[in-house]
Design brief:
The protein has about 325 residues and is mainly alpha-helical. The chain is built from 15 helices and no strands. It has two domains: about 130 residues, Farnesyl Diphosphate Synthase (Orthogonal Bundle), CATH 1.10.600.10; about 180 residues, Orthogonal Bundle (Farnesyl Diphosphate Synthase), CATH 1.10.600. It is about 70% helix and about 0% strand. The C terminus is likely disordered.
């Protein structure tokens, strides 16, 4: 097996297929914590807004998602990715039965039991990464949304369960809207990288403008400029239309914030607002994401964290003012 990012992230030479995972729960939890703290996400999964007693739980869930994502995207070939995702699926299905394929499953099994987490969200995520090995373009908006239901929405539902928040349909629907919105923002933001590094186009074909769109997009992404100036205008209109269809998801998702316990609102607000600000950034870049990848600056992230922290402090003050039940 050649050295790939997936090999290095998951330590497949030590914990890969066919190898016994002889590690204790404490060792597995430490493995997941190192991964959660070491990855360069927009905002740390273990930010100060995650309750301290849930750090191990969040880290285990994050490690599962991160590892499954890397198996799908960083395994070196689609054939290798498909094989490794099948191994990851089997590990998910037998988790908690005494067999452990990887430290992630050792750490995750008690979390699943403690919070009564269903297996479906985890298996749906794997299914999405399996789809990535077969589907490189989406014909319609609805097909792409169907993919997001598997690749993004399960994460939000798991987070609500970890926080012991309501699992009613309205709350779940609002959570799904935020997660789908975040996934779409990533797609609009990463057009160039997805095409050049993964040979995938997540822009629905029904939304393309002009002829020979894929050929001209590929040439523009490779060169870093638009040799055909008319294409850039067509591309901007395509992304503009997709951004316009994404905004209502964040508006709908905002309903979730008020449904949450006050102490949990800043955490969810932070992730939603990160997506909102990135969408605004795409607009300010004139939608030209085929030329470069717009991303939040360090200053923008700090500002969002401070806003979320102020929100958290306000929530605490509000709770203190609320009269206790008789």
């Amino acid at each position: 097996m050649g050295s790939t990012k997936a090999d290095r992230t998951l330590e497949l030479g030590r914990y890969g297929p066919g190898l016994d995972c002889a590690c204790t729960l404490a060792e597995a939890q430490a493995w997941c914590l190192r991964l959660a703290r070491g990855h360069g996400e927009n905002f740390s999964v273990l930010s100060g807004f995650v309750p301290r007693h849930l750090h191990d739980d969040f880290a285990a869930v994050y490690a599962f998602c991160r590892c499954a994502d890397d198996l799908g995207d960083e395994s070196g070939s689609r054939e290798q990715a498909t094989s490794l995702l099948a191994w990851w699926r089997e590990g998910t299905e037998v988790m908690g039965t005494g067999r452990s394929f990887h430290p992630v499953f050792t750490a995750l099994a008690p979390v699943v039991a403690r919070h009564a987490l269903p297996r479906k969200p985890f298996l749906d995520l794997i299914r999405a990464f399996e789809m990535d090995q077969k589907v490189t373009q989406y014909a319609t908006w609805d097909e792409l949304i169907g993919y997001c239901r598997l690749s993004a929405d399960p994460v939000g539902r798991i987070v609500l369960m970890l926080l012991d928040e309501a699992r009613d349909e309205a709350s779940l629907a609002a959570s799904d809207a935020i997660c789908t919105g975040l996934q779409l923002v990533n797609h609009w933001q990463d057009v160039r990288r997805d095409l050049l590094e993964r040979d995938r186009i997540y822009l629905p074909a029904e939304c393309w403008r002009g002829e020979l769109f894929v050929e001209r997009l590929s040439l523009t992404c490779q060169r870093g400029f638009a040799p055909d100036r008319s294409f850039l205008g067509e591309y901007r209109e395509t992304i503009r239309s997709l951004v316009d269809r994404t905004w209502p998801l964040f508006e709908r998702g905002g309903e979730l914030i008020e449904r949450l316990q006050p102490r949990h609102r800043p955490l969810i607000w932070l992730f939603r607002e990160g997506g909102v600000q990135t969408l605004q950034l795409i607009e300010s870049w004139n939608f030209e994401t085929c030329l470069a990848r717009p991303k939040l600056t360090a200053f923008s992230k700090i500002r969002l964290l401070l806003q979320a922290r102020w929100s958290a402090a306000s929530a605490v003050r509000t709770q203190r003012r609320e009269p206790r039940a008789a």
